[in-house]
Amino acid sequence: MMNFDKEALLGKWKEVSSLAQKTFQEKISAAELEKVKGNVNMMVSLVESKLGVSREEAQKKVEDLLGKIQQSDLRSKAEATAGKVLETANVLLDVVKEKIKKK
Questions:
Q1: 72 lies in which domain range?
Q2: Which is it for the CA torsion 24, 27, 30, 31, positive or negative?
């Protein structure tokens, strides 16, 4: 099973819980997810029992779900970085324009 940082998972729990409810077609309630908050093993057990799937399949489903959260985080970070790069490029462009005007 993938290794997930419990603190990071807790920080994203609202997002995890919301996505889990949508992903598992609301077969798992917010209250049930709140009971396992941040505990991946308990979440796997919950998915296993509520969806009636094998332990291995439940692990895969939870890994896929948490992988989506991680991808979302990476996408957000990449977008923020791209925004900063664009800002820097625009500042540099303005500096170059000013130097050209002075010549």
A1: 6-76
A2: negative
**Using one digit for the tens of pLDDT, what is the confidence trace for 27-41?**
898 899 889 887 888
Q: CA 97 to CA 100: how far, in whole Å?
A: 5
Taking a C-beta distance cutoff of 8 angstroms, is the pair 27, 50 a contact?
yes
Q: Would 93 be classed as within a structural domain?
A: no
Residue 84, both tokens: 């900063």
As a whole number of angstroms, the distance between CA 76 and CA 29 comes to: 27
pLDDT digits (tens, 9 = 90+) for 33-66: 889 887 888 889 999 999 999 999 999 988 888 8
